[in-house]
Design a protein that fits this description.
By secondary structure, this protein is α/β, with parallel strands linked by helices. It contains 10 helices and 22 strands. A hairpin with a 5-residue loop joins β1 (7-15) and β2 (21-26). α1 (94-111) packs parallel to α10. It binds S-adenosyl-L-homocysteine.
Amino acid sequence: MIKKGDIVTLEISDYTGEGSGVGKINLQGTESLFPLFVSNTAIGDVVEAVVTKVNRSYAFASILKILEPAPDRVDPVCPVTGRCGGCTFRHISYDAQLKWKESAVENTMKRIGGIESGDYELCPIIGAEDRDRYRNKAQYPVGTFIDKKTGKRHTITGFYAGRSHRIVESEDCLIEDRFNAVILKSIREYADKNHISAYNEKTGEGLLRHVLIRTAYHTGEIMVCLIVNAKRSDEMCYRSLYKLADQIYEMEGVVSALLNFNNRKTNVIMGDEELILKGKSSITDYIGENKYEISARSFYQVNPLQTEKLYDKALEYAGLTGNEIVWDLYCGIGTISLFLARHAKAVYGVEIVSAAVEDAKFNAALNGIENAFFYLGKAEDVSAELPEPDVIVVDPPRKGCDEKLIETINRSAVKKLVYVSCNHATLARDAALLKEEGWKLEILQPVDMFPQTSGVETVALLSKLDVISI
Ligand code: SAH
């Protein structure tokens, strides 16, 4: 058996869903190969690594030396690569990233869903033109750096290291907007000058927890939200931030400067309440011809250009003619619903977060769309009460659809299902359940929404007929 501290030589042959390299070793006295997960490695690397944690069926190891580099390795460019937990694929060529994502979707469908690749059409992954600076949202933790020699301290912002809450200081993240670095610098300088403390997760003390920055791709509007360890009623705690908000609001593009209150000792970043310090409570953006108001806590896809391609595919697969009743389950702020509504008789959206349902109704009105209706509740509970659909679109969170919803879909007379998925493992599980009831997976279309990471989004078309023409 291997143990913590052992040094092993490994060839990397795959990646985990989180983007760590996987290498397998033969353990003495056993037939099977034992997998070790080593982050910051590439398929084809031969590495020397030290074992850091051993579980029953797998272990973690940390890279010591690259003995033979993989052909797909590239210069990661980013100064904090390997330390920050963000871009797990930055050291791998973009072509190799895409190739792996496509094969990961195909392999998962076979391994978990039991559906062979020859039984459906696997479309080539839709890659991104912008591999950097593509994100429209960032949440930076705020911390304090203390110089051990001089005892001097200063405010830092950055990202968490992988699987930890240690902040890796980063002045400019390459997948985020360039201007974020300017905003963050002014916040750090203001905090240092005015003795505004950063939150300390261990003690629960200090004021500034996170900075959320959202940028609207098409309008350029920027929202800056300071997440503070205070209650709305403790005005004395956060008064010192009013001037900072004025300063931020003066910056080009900033139309919204907010405070969010979170005084709980929790990993959840945002609290339940905001206060507008300057400007609006939301920013305006477009996806296709639809206009959306995005508030601090709304779910909104982070890669605007790829989102448009994803939703276009969902719309294409729905194959609407203008006469259909469509359910859009897990509809968030109604983003896909509004796309669909322009081509359908009526769209019924269901969403569990009440603020998102309010946003969805508002966004429909904003676009003059009168045939989209939104309901608050669980997709698995509410959908059975809606008018019979011709097409169902689902876009569930990572855990996939609830089994009760799959039963509702099976009981309805619907013949066409468009499944948008951020986790192909649960998509494959649900496709297998649907297959038992006579559904056929027609098309799988992977879309790269998250370059430099292992994440991949997939749109699937399933039908209950032999062939659906789209
Ligand atoms: N389709 C939207 C949102 C997709 S994210 C878009 O593209 O923007 C998934 C959404 O499902 C989130 O808004 C989440 O709040 C919601 N959700 C999670 N569990 C749910 C459930 N059981 N029933 C309905 N909505 C749920």
